Amino acid sequence: MPPIIGIDLGTTNSLCAIFQDGTPQLIPNAFGENLTPSIVCVTEEGALLVGAAARELRVTQPDRCAACFKRFMGSHEQLSLAGKQYTPVELSSLVLKSLRDDACHHLGTDVTEAVITVPAYFNDNQRQATKQAGELAGLRVKRIVNEPTAAALTYGFHDRDSEKKILVIDLGGGTFDVTYMDVFEGTLEIVSTAGESFLGGEDFTDRLLASLLQKQGRQLETAELQEPHRVARLRQQCEMAKRQLTKLEAVKIKLPDAAGHIADDSLTVNVTRTAYAKLVEPLIERLKQPVAKALRDGRASPDNIDDVILVGGATRMPAVQEFVRRYFSKEPLCRFNPDEVVALGAAVQAALIADDQAVDDLVMTDVCPHTLGVETVKEFANEVKPGYFTPIIHRNTTIPVSREELFRTVAPNQREVHVVVYQGEHRRVEQNLKIGELKVTGIPPGPAGKEFYIRFTYDLNGILEVEAYVLASPKKYRTVLTHNARGLSQAELDEAIQKLQSLKYYPREDLENQRLLRYCERLVGEISPFQRPQLESAIDHFESAMSSGDKESVQVAQTTLLQTLSMLGYDFRGRGE
Length: 577
Ligand code: AMP
Prior knowledge:
Blueprint: E1 4-9, E2 13-20, E3 23-26, E4 36-37, E5 39-42, E6 47-50, H1 52-60, E7 65-67, E8 79-81, E9 84-86, H2 88-107, E10 113-118, H3 124-136, E11 140-146, H4 147-158, E12 164-171, E13 176-184, E14 187-196, H5 201-215, H6 220-226, H7 228-244, E15 250-254, E16 268-272, H8 273-279, H9 281-297, E17 307-311, H10 318-328, H11 341-353, E18 363-367, E19 372-380, E20 383-393, E21 398-399, E22 401-408, E23 417-423, E24 433-440, E25 451-458, E26 464-469, E27 476-480, H12 490-501, E28 504-505, H13 511-524, H14 532-548, H15 551-567
Parallel strand pairs: 1-10, 6-28, 10-11, 12-17, 14-18
Antiparallel strand pairs: 1-2, 2-3, 2-4, 5-6, 5-7, 8-9, 12-13, 13-14, 15-16, 18-21, 19-20, 19-23, 22-25, 23-24, 25-26, 26-27
Helix pairs in contact: 1-13, 2-3, 4-11, 5-7, 6-7, 13-14, 14-15
The chain binds adenosine monophosphate.
């Protein structure tokens, strides 16, 4: 059986794992690291870099880099990268391809199948877009799994004999998910899920960034357009400060100039943990509602919960942990690394699909996170009003599920019906998300009230199929809401494959040197002006050796560069972030 890898495609970082020798294991990337930053860049030479090297370049050349594109999955948003437009699907596929290459290298065999995780709160379009990104990367997506479900699977796999009610709180780089589940006798039953798809660790960084810019009389949105280098460098400083504040009581942030440079005499701002906690209070406040909703839908209360599990890098923040402590009056659990637990769970899901013996006593059931339904009209005092939402599958229904509802025509001799499908919780469709449409024709003539049926089938991937039919007619109108939504058509997919194939890739053995080069380029803007000439000269020498293609001189120049770095007090091997 070909290997099925498990992939956590994150807003900030992505990871890949495989179920091997009876247990899920992470697959390291070309740098021997488990986390691959979900950042893509195109260098001046027109070559593509994905991951850590791209993250370095994001600081010095933000216009050549794209990050956080997961936030736009399923939309028509395009991101500009070195003057060219790319869709979030294309950019995600480049990250997936990089993970796939790492897996092929690690396993010594071709890898063509994967389980990919998505935030539970991802809608139909976003799931389809993720599947398409997998296809573009040459991966058959065997299953789309909800991230908190995957995290739960890791816990469930290691703790399958327990009987517990568990709440998984997953705050990643860009999304927030809460999942309530019941574990008993090897069965993991997801009971309810809620979340927000625009709330994550990046918002916490941006809040600090915006406040520092504001102190200088600037607005984040305009500064990002007018002074991208200043913003890129300051964002990186804020990201570092945010992480340091997990351990330290106070940090110093140096404010870069418009060109994104930091010097010895740059203005320095002191940020304390308390001040940061105050600053992010509105974001912490937004965590409350989805937690309450997941509990309410699961008919549970905070004191019913045995374990609160934290998942996603942003749950490391003391402010988030404090919120959990207060809300549940208990210590949150973090038995597994919150960055890794989702990918490991995806590998367990892959093992379930492959019928691996090591998981034959494990059963998992998941739910549909949104209410799905159609637009209908309502009649009030003889006036017919359109735009109302009639649910067919209610949120938190166990999946897979198939439900049929009977509808009636509203006008005499109405021969066709335009079925418009929405997802959301509002009574009126304009406040919900339109995810597709289909037309039913062949309705026999006659008075209003002719019956027709609409069936919704929601599969284990969270993908919806809609069927509509009239009893009098043998013809069924079916649609899987793929292409008519905001995803890509087959022609667009083919075009994207061609476009991506034209990108130049660095050979695997050159990646470490590329990363070293980009790391040093970033340092140039950060070190003291006195140290700069020495570093620049070593970089020039290294770059020139790399262009010559002569392996021996590259080796020599690399050693010199590493020694120079170490003399200046930087440790590339130790990966000074
Ligand atoms: P994920 O999408 O799960 O990889 O989450 C990444 C998010 O976690 C990013 O927004 C990171 O800034 C954040 N993060 C990672 N480590 C820390 C830390 N030590 N303190 C605060 N935030 C962190």
